[in-house]
Write a structure and sequence with these properties.
alpha/beta; Rossmann fold; eight-stranded mixed beta sheet; globular
Length: 280
């Protein structure tokens, strides 16, 4: 494990910003944020993890770090996102890490754990089920209707304009998904004004460019999946199917009465699940 803080790291020509906090000699926990948020979305969860002696390393992922913003949608394929996390692991040290992800961060974390089980001690995925389970749920439930926005995000220019307008329709969509007024303001300040929105949309626009095999790998590492029954974007079917894509020890946790934004809304409960999975 690195004896120095990791404030930045590189993957090829891309440079990533990192929030590295908690005890430097603590067990490393990598926290991957989702859309449309940045590494700071883990701050409340991190505080609880630090209290248990854990070191947290949260990167601004590809598209969000100013030095890591490919212009083409091809730059946001899942293989590239996975390679970013592997490069971060190497910057931390030679040993495996405990991996946690929310939203798109969870999708990336599932793929990292499936492709590189030797680099991952445990996985805690928040909100988003295993990609293979998600795809199957699209065919066997109302998940396709819940995911209508993914099709809208394929349009050029328009989605960015809608989401970027303060007080507009984009804010209303985020509010209906469970974001508070404060969270929406943070989105505008830290994502839109920071220039990260095009990159965040790039994740959706690259989905069809990734090889299907990258979504179907089973995960063999000890895994916890956390789903909330108030998530308007992700239904129960994908959550129930996820167990079929995990061959290692597996726990499924349901948080009742919460929206999609669990790290913000229920940080203590999320931290407790991570701590239980790590075993400290």
């Amino acid at each position: 494990m690195s004896e120095q803080r990791v404030s930045h790291y590189r993957n090829g020509r891309l440079t990533f910003d990192v929030i590295d906090s908690g005890p430097l000699d603590g067990i490393p926990v990598v926290l991957l944020h989702g859309f449309p948020q940045r590494a700071s979305s883990w701050s409340a969860v991190s505080e609880h993890l630090h209290d248990h002696g854990l070191r947290t390393i949260a990167p601004d992922q590809r598209g969000y770090s100013p030095g890591a913003r490919p212009r083409s949608r091809f730059g946001y394929r899942i293989s590239g996102l996975v390679s970013d996390v592997v490069a971060l692991m190497s910057a931390i040290g030679p040993g495996p890490v405990h991996l946690v992800g929310h939203d798109w961060g969870a999708a990336v974390a599932w793929s990292v754990a499936g492709a590189h089980p030797d680099r991952v001690s445990s996985l805690t995925a928040v909100s988003v089920p295993h990609p293979g389970a998600f795809l199957r749920s699209m065919l066997s439930s109302n998940q396709a209707l819940k995911s209508y926005y993914m099709a809208l995000f394929q349009l050029p220019v328009v989605p960015g304009l809608i989401l970027a307008a303060r007080g507009g329709r984009g804010d209303e969509l985020l509010r209906r998904a469970g974001m508070t007024r404060s969270m929406i303001e943070t989105f505008h300040d830290d994502v839109v004004d920071h220039g990260a929105l095009p990159g965040g949309l790039g994740y959706y626009r690259s989905m069809m460019l990734s090889a299907p095999t990258q979504f179907g790998r089973k995960v063999s590492v000890p895994t916890t999946y956390i789903w909330s029954d108030g998530d308007v974007a992700l239904g129960r079917k994908g959550a129930d199917l996820t167990k079929n894509f995990v061959s290692g020890p597996y726990d499924f946790t349901i948080i009742e009465g919460a929206s999609h934004w669990l790290p913000d809304e229920r940080p203590e409960e999320i931290a407790a699940s991570i701590i239980a999975r790590i075993g400290v």
